[in-house]
Amino acid sequence: MKKDDVYKGFEVLDVFKIPYYDSEGIFLRHKKSGLEVFHILNNDEENLFAFAFRTPCKDSTGVAHIIEHSVLCGSKKFPIKDPFLQLRNQSINTYLNAYTAKDRTVFPASSLIKTDYFNLMSVYADAVFFPILNVETFLQEGWRIETDQNGNSVIQGVVFNEMKGNYSSFNSVATDAVLNASVLGTGYEKDSGGDPLEIPTLSYERFREFHKKYYCAANCLVFLYGNIPTEDQLDFLDENVIKSIKSPGEKYSFASENSCVKMKKRIDAFGPAENSKNTTALVWKIGDSAENENLFSLPMEISFLSELLLGNDSAPVIKLLLNKFKGCDIAPQTGCSISSRFFSIAIGVNGLKPEQAQEFQDCIGDAMKSIVKNGIKEEDIERSFMSFDFSIREVKRSPSHGPYSLVLLKRVLRSWTYGANPKDALAFIESFEQIKKKIKDEPEYLKNLIRKFFVENKNKTLVTVSPSEKWSLDRAEKEKKLASCLYKKIGKRNVFLSLEKLHAFQAGSENENLIPAVNIEELENPAEKIETRKTLCEKIPFYVNQEACNGIVYASVSFPVDRLDPADYKFLPLLSSCISGLGTKKRSWEETISYSDRIMGDFGAYIRSAKVPEYSKKLAEENPLIIGREWLVIHFKFIEEKSAQAFDFASEIISSIDFLDKPRLKTIVNGLCSSLNASVVPGGHYFAMLRSCRLLNRSCAVQEIKDGLTSVFAINEIKKMKLSEISEKLESIYKKIISSGSLFHVTAGISGIAAAKKGFAFLVKNLCLEFPKPKKKVSDKEFFKQTEIAGKIYCEKNPCVDEVFVVPGNIGFASAAVKSSGEKEKEIMADTVFSHLLETSDLWKQIRTSGGAYGVFLSVQSSSGTTCFATYRDPKPFDSLGYFEEKLPLLEKDEFSFDDIKKAIAGVYSDEIEPYTPAMRGGTGLMRCLYGISLSLDKIRIKNLLSLKKSDIEKSVCCYKNAVFCGKKVAICGKDMISDKIKKISGKIIKISL
């Protein structure tokens, strides 16, 4: 296509090359309706589309968020209750989602198969433009009044419960407070997701009006990515959207808005009031995307300054804060925000007392003035250049586990939403090169930016967010009063009638074959064998994955940790943080981190563990020094030309970590403690799953110790120890580990592999590394003991729920596990298909649709030989556990038709064919070698999946019907959810002080 061409009524506004992605950008607008389309056309087979609408936030009722959920609950062409669920069940997507931002709502999906891609687009297009939006959908997804088992009125709804979960997380509330600080007095200060105390003020009429006003062609932006020709996509839009719309509607124009400048103190988060948990942040507003000024360079300037000044603990402003306020850690809200209309930069710390807030602000102000006066150190500039160089070179999937095109989608919407050419947002590499040139040619360039953005910028706000048990109690009380008032206002009879209609709607049968599906007989097995070669480097095991990595080398050195005593394992998460956070005997921690970031893209450590499959037990017995062990993995990535420096530096760190730096050690302990505490409520389903499986085998116990609630309790106990004791313990453990032998791994191109082999040989000689030594023989029970957490026992014999963890807030999570039907690969795939079927049918309808939970999961866990059930942001976690337990014995062989099974096979197939990045292929290859898993596993799994017959699923159904519950039944919830009745059936109730 060429500029000014017209195709099917679409005028080509711009065509341009995007050289860094070997792509062409094509920007079009439909002349009659105003619908805009932007296509990044290239050779990528993973095609993605997204429908985006400008949806301004006027209040905190969450109307845009509820609409986002509701349009995917039935439409004109697909009048069924949950087309989105059907797509989850049967489409071959590599990504399927929708999200609500401050001023836009976006519906993206991607697929590797063209037929499936257009099936997805067909359902999404009809959903957003022609949804049914009946009152039952509003009651289900938004809010409704119910009565609980005690006859008390309560508010329910999927979005309502999702946002209750958000408001039950201190970190989420603090993040909202920091982001809102630069937009005080504007509509952006409102909660587009919805405040649970305001969501019930939204009427059904306003809900309908919102969709009519904003979900129109003139207000729609269609993003396309991949190798499907633009003409084919426009043909689809013309036939399925343009020809069907009655009115184009109006494009929303963003009015000028000025934010207030004021000191703002908020005490609005859960938990016991402890000063050590305060979050204090200084936030600057820098620019307005809707003004369309300087969009070429401003976002990059903000991003670069954020990396330069705040990028890590050695960055100048962060280093100053850590040294000034001992014992505090940097808040996760620190950094820049350039994805919404108002750009901002925030600097925050956790642990200040409220009276220190002004001192904190003054400290930052003085730091900025000092930098303007004295300039930036060259090493900090080099560090920032390296960070951006990696971001340009590296092939990565998006943070949400979707295709990289999602990153480009969000980047494009940053300017396109406000009327600019999408091209403006894709010039970030050119912008980066421009910044590098200005730094070289204009000595005052960075100083002037810092002066402009920070020193002279009066548009700043100081935010203090403090935990307050009173705030949490007040909100709970307000919710009760609101529910009572609404119940009286609506009337008992009307509440009963609306619930009766809703339940009839939810229980009603429908033609689920309306959703288009790909014929599984046409599916192929595209999986490639991951090639991981095992060789030796100086007599040390050396694993190699040759991949096209664009000049990047991914290297790791692994040391066995299973020579330790089980009681030492609780220190491993802290040890991993110390490896990348402490200094060495040669350099201070600041110098170490700064130097690392100047020569590497990443340096860190983690603990690797997994279960050896049954078919490899003999192989593990024959190779006990390698297969089936637990490892401390020290990993680093670098550009090939930095190889010598990278390995020299790795040698320095591995051989001489300075565990005696107590002030720095305290900062790391506090930071890890804060991050683990903050992760419990947002990730409650994950913690519940780990907890439920902890006693099934050693691998599950180790995973719970390093990643589960055991690690949360452990770090809080470690924090109480004397720093000298922590230091001594870590050094002792570390010495044991690195004297236990090692193995190497590299993922790189040919020249990168050669450079890595040379570097590893240097490590062997310099560190006197050896072949891995035998593991310590310890019974599984010794590891099980390490996962025990003290609590009050209520029901000693046969409790319905084994462990209940009490967290602040008013939301819940649940998990339980049952024995899977088999360990052979075909049986595992049959179990996977059946669990997918059950999750997306009965469990979803009962727990998510009717029960109001935000999510429900049923997944086969190879690490434990179980199928694990879990719920997410669940208002009724104990009812959910009860329903799951009651459901299994009622299963029948003819529960699902073969058509249902074929759709589920397609849905599971989509998970199996998700593309790997080069780094992912390398990491997966090593993991499979270390645990005796076939390097052709993907191909084997897909072969077994596509050969499944109805009889295979029937066998699986029979096994689940008689399955025994194993492990523990676990709930994590707020204390208000634990009634006297629940206490009587609970084995142990444990309070988590977060």
UniProtKB/TrEMBL annotation:
<dbReference type="GO" id="GO:0046872">
    <property type="term" value="F:metal ion binding"/>
</dbReference>
<dbReference type="InterPro" id="IPR055130">
    <property type="entry name" value="PreP_C"/>
</dbReference>
<dbReference type="Pfam" id="PF22516">
    <property type="entry name" value="PreP_C"/>
</dbReference>
<dbReference type="GO" id="GO:0006508">
    <property type="term" value="P:proteolysis"/>
</dbReference>
<dbReference type="Pfam" id="PF05193">
    <property type="entry name" value="Peptidase_M16_C"/>
</dbReference>
<protein>
    <submittedName>
        <fullName>Peptidase M16 domain protein</fullName>
    </submittedName>
</protein>
<dbReference type="InterPro" id="IPR013578">
    <property type="entry name" value="Peptidase_M16C_assoc"/>
</dbReference>
<dbReference type="Pfam" id="PF08367">
    <property type="entry name" value="M16C_assoc"/>
</dbReference>
<dbReference type="InterPro" id="IPR011249">
    <property type="entry name" value="Metalloenz_LuxS/M16"/>
</dbReference>
<dbReference type="Pfam" id="PF00675">
    <property type="entry name" value="Peptidase_M16"/>
</dbReference>
<dbReference type="InterPro" id="IPR011765">
    <property type="entry name" value="Pept_M16_N"/>
</dbReference>
<feature type="domain" description="Peptidase M16C associated">
    <location>
        <begin position="465"/>
        <end position="718"/>
    </location>
</feature>
<dbReference type="InterPro" id="IPR007863">
    <property type="entry name" value="Peptidase_M16_C"/>
</dbReference>
